[in-house]
Design a protein that fits this description.
This protein has 410 residues and is mostly helical. The chain has helices at residues 16-26, 29-35, 41-47, 52-80, 83-101, 106-134, 137-151, 153-169, 172-192, 205-216, 219-249, 254-277, 283-308, 311-338, 344-369, 375-409. The model is unreliable at 1-6 (pLDDT under 50).
């Protein structure tokens, strides 16, 4: 490994394999930070004497800070390296988790959740760039397509763990768990990892802004980010409303909430595997079919819940919607991160940043307009997001036809 112009602890060749596993282990942290305490949301409202919307705001604040932070953290990573920034972020994250677990002041929790968004952004974006730094060609494409699949372990495992932690130890235990997990990763990083960037980009704000501007002007890149935001908003709308529907409307326990989130998290993983398996299929055709199947599932949810009203109707049709969302996210995430390999930190940060800004605004806005009451409101939210996705896909189809016509004319 050459040292370039980064005077930091370089990663050793013999540790690249272990360090890559650690990078993949850090990717689900954003999912863990949102999903582990989903079964605890109703319990938090009671313990802290706050409203449902105040508890849901802890999710939205994390999402928007996580998204906005990625917009500038990518530039810092490309200028100052990945390693030290990630280490400092992990340490601060651990401390903020302990703070949340030891306070009952909702405004302190809000502040710590904003800090969570910033620190996890640094951790996750640094590891995306880590992969782009070390791998090229088909191997890079393979690893990038694994990102959404590995990330989905967070939504699958975290609520399952969180449900049992809530029942046995209270909502605070979720944050002790998060802090402990990050502490283990920090220790392993210190032992096995190191800096991977070969040559830094000088920290010239004007030059960095010009790179951002060039990326934003790339229509296909921005279109991909919009699709990522719409896809993940479908998951987040359920995450913000599902616990209240299950625990208030159906009067079931947080453990059941955890099992339901586990089931729907698995749907996202299935969609990711399908996306990876069909990565070389015609893009517009497969994405258009996916949107149509999602719309059919959302409409069936509305009809079947109105007729039968059981929890099973939500789970069956939401599962299908979430499979489609995972499929969309896998395809567009792989596409976006390959466009600008020379500025992997900025591209990864901009992709994740704008995506989560879209998710935070859409999900909280939909929950505000359609409160977490029953399956009908959830189905209306799904239908809205899918229809917007269809409009974006229509734009993709027009661009595809225009490009094909130009190619045929040459």
């Amino acid at each position: 490994m050459t040292t370039g112009n980064v005077k930091q602890q370089r990663i050793k060749d013999k540790n690249i394999g272990i360090a890559t596993l650690l990078a993949f282990a850090m990717i689900p942290m954003s999912g863990f930070a949102t999903d582990i305490y989903i079964p605890s949301l109703p319990g938090m409202t009671h313990a802290l004497s706050i409203s449902n919307s105040q508890a849901q705001l802890t999710l939205s604040l994390f999402l928007i800070s996580y998204g906005l932070s990625q917009l500038f953290i990518g530039g810092l990573l490309d200028s100052f390296g990945r390693y030290r920034i990630a280490l400092v972020a992990m340490l601060i994250f651990c401390a903020s988790c302990v703070t949340i677990a030891n306070t009952h002041n909702i405004y302190v929790i809000y502040a710590m959740r904003v800090l969570h968004g910033i620190t996890i952004a640094a951790m996750v974006v640094s590891k995306r760039a880590f992969i782009v730094d070390l791998y090229k060609g088909e191997q890079l494409k393979h690893y990038l397509s694994l990102f959404t699949i590995i990330w989905s372990t967070g939504p699958i495992v975290a609520p399952f763990i969180g449900g049992y932690l809530e029942v046995n130890f209270g909502w605070e235990s979720n944050f002790y768990f998060l802090g402990g997990f990050a502490a283990v990763l920090l220790l392993m990083e210190l032992i096995f990892s190191g800096e991977t960037i070969q040559h830094t980009t000088p920290f010239h704000p004007a030059k960095i802004l010009s790179i951002y501007y060039g990326m934003i002007r790339t229509g296909s890149f921005i279109l991909g980010i919009v699709m990522l935001g719409l896809a993940y908003s479908m998951v987040m709308v359920y995450n913000m409303s599902g616990p209240f529907i299950i625990e208030h409307y159906f009067n079931l326990s947080p453990v059941i909430t955890g099992y339901c989130s586990l089931f729907l998290g698995f749907a996202w993983m299935v969609g990711g595997f399908l996306g990876k398996g069909m990565i070389n299929k015609p893009f517009v055709k497969k994405m258009s079919i996916n949107v149509m199947l999602q719309l059919a599932a959302a409409l069936l949810l509305l009809v079947m819940f109105s007729l039968y009203g059981g929890l099973w109707t939500i789970l069956v049709f939401a599962f299908l919607v979430h499979v489609g969302a995972g499929f969309t996210y896998n395809n567009y995430f792989t596409f976006c991160l390959q466009i600008f390999p020379k500025n992997a930190g900025i591209a990864g940060g901009l992709t994740g940043g704008l995506c989560y800004v879209i998710v935070s605004m859409l999900s909280y806005g939909l929950i505000y307009v359609l409160p977490a009451e029953d399956g009908r409101h959830l189905s209306f939210s799904y239908v809205f997001l899918i229809l917007v996705s269809a409009l974006v896909m229509y734009r993709v189809f027009l661009l595809y036809r225009k490009r094909k016509a130009i190619g045929d004319g040459q």
